[in-house]
Amino acid sequence: MDLPLRSIGELSRLIETGEISPVELTEQTLARIDSLDSELNAYITVMIDVALEQARTAEREIRSGNRRGPLHGIPYAAKDLFFTKGTKTTAGSKVFADFIPDYDATVVTKLRDAGAVLLGKTGLHENAYGITSTNPHFGAVRNPWDTDHIPGGSSGGSAAAQAAGLCSFSLGTDTGGSIRIPAAFCGVAGLKPTFGRVSRYGVFPLSHTLDHVGPFAWTAEDLWHIFSAMVGRDSEDESTVERPVQEPKFSAEPSLQGRKIGVPRNFYFEGLDPEVDTATRAVLIELENLGAELVEVTVPDIEEFNLIARLIQTAEASSTHAYNLEARREDYGDDQQTLLDQGFFVTAVDYLNAQKRRRQLNREFYELFDQVDTIVAPAVAILPAKIGQRSIQVDGVDEDVRMMTTRNARALNLTGLPLLTLPCGFSDSGLPIGVQLVGKLFDECTVLEVGGAYQQVTDWHKRRPAMATP
Amino acid sequence: MRNAQDPIERWKQAAEALELKIPKDRIESAAPIFDGLWKAMRPSLRRDLSLVEPDFQFRPDGR
Lengths: 470, 63
Known about the structure:
The structure holds two protein chains of two kinds. Chain A is 37% helix and 16% strand. By secondary structure, chain A is α/β, with parallel strands linked by helices. In chain A, a hairpin with a 3-residue loop joins strand 4 and strand 5 (139-140). The longest helix of chain A is centred in the C-terminal third of the chain and has 26 residues, at 302-327. Chain A starts with 7 loop residues before the first helix and ends in a 14-residue tail after the last helix. Chain B is mainly alpha-helical. Chain B is built from two helices and no strands. The longest helix of chain B is centred in the middle third of the chain and has 22 residues, at 24-45. The A-B interface holds A 194-196, 209, 238-239, 241, 304, 307-308, 310-311, 314, 326, 329, 334, 337-339, 341-342, 344-345, 350, 352-360, 362, 415-417, 441-442 and B 11, 14-15, 18, 20-23, 26-27, 29-30, 33-34, 37-38, 40-41, 44-45, 47, 49, 52-55, 57-63.
């Protein structure tokens, strides 16, 4: 397997032992971007000079005995809404197409401190507001497993780049599913940490009480390495908190004895594509075989969660874009105008009461963790739609692709809970399927341990798209 | 002419009253979707929330 298609764990060991160098790995990844990205459109900007310079620095430091940790010399890509000093940061928007920040996002700084090598900036749904990553200004990002299909969004470029080996890990943001949906659709792993764990300073906002920053990689263990480099309070982001971070244990011979896995009896397993249903239920069998106890749980009214989340997001996103939408409406895509116009009609009273209702609903959800350690559910109810497809048949009824794609994801952003998405199968047509593990507040450790155990006994995360392995 | 029960007309009137600078054709795209959300939200928001602490800065655990 080409080096850029391997996990961080493997690459880090090879770098540590001197079998490969960061420069070699970065050059191979840049060569793959050069040959494959014309088909995928995963990148908006490739930072060749920066990447090679950072790789040379990493190589020098490692050779002189100053290895900083598992990310040292590992090339990554950042969704093009993370501020990068001196390099344009578009947010997938025509309004910001020429915006060059004069500072780095906190997470970009932290990853540089960990020795990671920044390859470039990846494509996204315009303003991170949407789930297709079909961008009217920068073109459609394509799914490496079938380029006629969407990679999901809004962090579609980051997930597509990960799946195709155009980076060794990547960064995304998740406001209503924008890490979990592309992770599921591209067959990679994604982590949305607990709200407040990771700084959003220098990250274009969409909806400030729902936005989360998180990584894509191949394995739960790789996600841990990235998360642990990014976590922590940031005085520049008042939503961040300093909380202890428990390191997960990843074992080659895993056991989930004593773990209680919640299986929702309502909502999450309803209205699914049959292949998604089968793949997710197979995950439950694997977890049970590992010793876990499956416990049926009744989740609170997720339809209401979804409505509250939509209302809050609608108002907050319109606040973010109010000035530019009025001044430069013609620079916003059609779907953005339709979404953003709605926010102006949300009254202040409705917005504030929605935030209060959110608090009540969240408490109901948090109480589930008195019964279980983690909850398992399909990450997305349907398979990736085709590019341009607007409706999809579910149980013989035409449904809106956007609503069906966010159905299982959106509510959980209200809760702020940590969420891990892992590949768990493929449709007959070869499209990936993902499962999500929901953890207690600030307990990324449990979802990563359970996910790591699952990956020890399955090989979905070892598969790569045909276009990436010519 | 559309009457005030028509979602598009209702939100057009609201936009005019609020002096929102949204072109009329764009309201025709957004209004039916927002009207659905607005109506669906009523049962959720028409409840006594007077004693629920407001979150001025969202903290998932309220701290």
